[in-house]
Amino acid sequence: MYEIINNYLKRLLKESTPAAPVWNIESIRQGKKPHWNYIDGCMVTALNLLSSISGDDSYARFAEDFINYYVDEEGNILGYSMDKYNLDDINEGRVLFPLYEKTGNEKYKKAIENLHDQILGQPRTETGNFWHKQIYPHQIWLDGIYMAQVFSALYEKNFGHGDYSDIVKQITNVEKLMKDPATGLYFHGCDVSKQAFWADPVTGCSKNFWLRSIGWFLIALSDLAEIMDSTSAEPIRRILKDLIINISEYADPETGMYYQVVNKGELTGNYLETSGSAMVAYAMLKAARLGIVEERYAGMGQKTFDGICKKYLKETKEGLSLSGICLVAGLGPENNPRRDGTFEYYISEPVVENDAKGVAPFILCYTEILRRIK
Q: What is the pLDDT of residues 12-52, one digit of tens each?
């Protein structure tokens, strides 16, 4: 089964250019000009990792060419605006670190510093956590932990003094503020000011457990556990292990996959979703490899990955296609009341094929599978 995955990925790359990647469905639908964004960042990061694990240099060459389209010789980044203070825009910067290490080209270091300047100026909640975006004041989203904190850790490891205390504090704050004591799952967002229309007036949290937001959080935790020194990473490892154990209770018995709204699989309209399931599987496989959870969770991750392949990796007239991917979901802002965090909202968002928010985690999960079968 796994042999067909490389063929699928090669097709996506063949049909893509840096200016028009076929996996960025949001940009295609909205007619956006080429710009630096987290969706492409997830894909390029995954391709770069796949190249290093598989030994196929074509993935790394594509990733380097892609980034070079967006980063000029002075480290300026096409379509990036610091003044938006959007944590999503930090994510693509992850791939700059291995490119700088590989090439020594100073433009990558300059681009890293440009993104780090945003981190230094990012508005914070009263708890010390980053606002998710300038347009989301006082709000912490699980997504943002992945988008910014992994970059911050890489910066600290490569150019700082190994001080991960701010990263750990922000994540332990998330545990305090956003973990549900009944299920052990995490709510998508929290407005510390409790003013957002979707926020619980007592806790400030949103209403439901959106699978992909938990998935982003899990990937962040598992990547940070590998980047950081063992002493600094101890709280990260603890939170990661706890969440893996808790979410594993909601796996679909047949496929090993997880539902769009994690704990409400029995409700009409809910569905087994690809991107978040792949994220959970990646975290389980990686955490087992790092000795954070028992080996049986690697088996669960493997089952989830196989379930995605069987259910959603299908032959179409265009070739292989990966479906079952939620296109996008969010909370607000105030002028978008439809995004209210209800069950009905999450299941109403479009479900698409071949979007990088699903394909990239699928690739990341595949790299962990490859590590085990090599």
A: 999 999 999 999 999 999 999 999 999 999 999 999 999 99
- Asked if 185 and 126 touch (Cβ cutoff 8 Å), the reply is no
Is the pTM of the predicted complex or chain greater than 0.90?
yes
Contact in structure between 123 and 72 (CB atoms under 8 Å): no
The separation between the first and the last C-alpha atoms of the chain, rounded to the nearest angstrom, is 15
pLDDT digits (tens, 9 = 90+) for 42-90: 999 999 999 999 999 999 999 999 999 999 999 999 999 999 999 999 9
Torsion of CA 80, 86, 88, 94, to 10 degrees: 60
**Strand pairing class (313-316; 319-322):** antiparallel
Q: How many residues does the chain have?
A: 374
CA pair distance 297, 281, nearest whole angstrom: 9
> Nearest CA to 251 among 197, 327, 305, 179?
305
Q: How far apart are CA 284 and CA 163, in angstroms?
A: 26
C-alpha atoms less than 13 angstroms from C-alpha of 199 in its C-beta half-sphere? 22
* Residue among 140, 171, 169, 167 at smallest CA distance from 156: 167
Domains of the chain: 3-373 (1.50.10.10)
Residues 6+ apart with CB under 8 A from 200: 194, 206, 207
Please report how many Cα atoms fall inside a 13 Å half-sphere around the Cα of residue 285, on the Cβ side: 25
3-state DSSP assignment of residue 124: strand
Residue 343, C-beta contacts closer than 8 angstroms, at least 6 positions apart: 207, 208, 261, 264, 267, 270
Token duo for residue 79: 């379509």
- As a whole number of angstroms, the distance between CA 121 and CA 133 comes to 12
Residues 6+ away with beta carbon under 8 Å from 205: 177, 178, 187, 189, 190, 199
In 71-182, the DSSP E strands lie at 139-141
Measure CA 44 to chain center: 12
d(CA 303, CA 253): 10
What is the C-alpha R_g of the chain?
A: 19
What distances in angstroms separate CA 36 from CA 88, 90, 109, one per listed residue? 10, 9, 16
Q: At 35, list the tokens.
A: 């710009």
CA distance 116 to 37: 16
**Residues acting as catalytic residues:** 143
